[in-house]
Specification:
Layout lengths: L10 E11 L5 E11 L3 H22 L4
Antiparallel strand pairs: 1-2
């Protein structure tokens, strides 16, 4: 989800959430929130994508079940 920008161009929030299923069948939920941002919508989406990739990579390295 996302919001509009205020008069100064600040976006109140961009966010995304999802269920990720790893190749070994493990699953996790992730939610990322970008708040009070002056970045472009594309940059905010990239920030969320990079956060998701970092978590995915860490989960793949961890292996096993928790």
């Amino acid at each position: 989800g996302s919001s509009d920008r205020n008069a100064d161009g600040m976006k109140t929030a961009d966010n995304d959430a999802g269920l990720v299923i790893l190749p070994d069948g493990r699953k996790y939920y992730i939610a990322a929130f970008v708040m009070d941002s002056y970045e472009t919508d594309e940059d905010n989406a990239d920030i969320i994508a990079r956060i998701s990739r970092m978590v995915y990579d860490a989960m793949r390295r961890q292996g096993g079940y928790w």
